[in-house]
Amino acid sequence: LVVSDVELPNFEPWRNKRLQILNANVESNKAALSCTSGLRRFHVNKLRELLITAWQDNKRIEAVRLVTELARLLSAPTTPSFFPVQWVLVTDILDLFGKLVYDRLFSKANEERKAAGCAALLNNFVSDDILPDTTEVARNWFCKIADIKEVVPRFYVESTLIGCLRFLDSATLSVNLLRLTKMVDSQFTIFIFSYARAYICKISMVLEPTDRGPHWKALNDWMQSSRQPVRFITLFIAPALEWIVQCVSYGATTMEDLGPLWEYCKQPGQQVSLLHPFVVAVSLNYLSNYCIEVCEIVSSHAVLVNSFLAFISVGSPRSI
């Protein structure tokens, strides 16, 4: 299993959130998941095996076809309770594919540099350190992705490979992360829209942890498009929003750092859907500094208090 992750202070790693999604959905929906999810899991695992075989046989075009088919599952209808589980299973394999391509380019770059009498690449290399043959191979990978016609599969495959821009044009990485954040917009279902944004935020935290641009874009678009019932969000969409909020708030110390987030929490139309992810996802150090302000928002409306308690009862990993 390969899970793209990053170790940062006061930041819950992705592997923990991944387990929360799997455990929460599987435990609460065992009966409903037993048949449908079994078939889908079998299909996902089969595609994973075929992908690994194609890669080992140097069938790169076939590998792209298989990973595209996997990503296509995230644009296909499924039950609300199973979508988060399916998303985790599929993105695990997308992460694997991204690592396979990146490692192959890294190996090829070092082989080319060795043949040219150059030292091996450092971990913090940039595209100027890459010699022409490897650059061309990297360009060919992105050309293959551009041939994917459907938006959602192309988004996921390009997102998992976007780190390979370091071999091609590392200076444009931040710009392209923001571009990908805009690719899957609110014309898609709330599941596709929300979890796609959570995925690009995950990738962004690995590649550019100090760049808040993609995360704010993801959050702003989500808050301006989402008008779902409270419990619906709690059960199935909240994990994605919690992850986005955590990414937005990483490194924040002042209220000004999270100004738009505070304003969203104060808006009557947004409070119920956002307050629980806010309290769950923002670091405890930050919340402890502004606990009075948080309590004022929660207690501002009786309906909000009841809804907030309902959120907590669903099973947040954080005690309040």
From TrEMBL:
<keyword id="KW-0653">Protein transport</keyword>
<dbReference type="GO" id="GO:0005768">
    <property type="term" value="C:endosome"/>
</dbReference>
<keyword id="KW-0967">Endosome</keyword>
<keyword id="KW-0813">Transport</keyword>
<dbReference type="GO" id="GO:0015031">
    <property type="term" value="P:protein transport"/>
</dbReference>
<dbReference type="InterPro" id="IPR029705">
    <property type="entry name" value="VPS35L"/>
</dbReference>
<protein>
    <submittedName>
        <fullName>Bestrophin homolog</fullName>
    </submittedName>
</protein>
<comment type="similarity">
    <text>Belongs to the VPS35L family.</text>
</comment>
<dbReference type="GO" id="GO:0032456">
    <property type="term" value="P:endocytic recycling"/>
</dbReference>
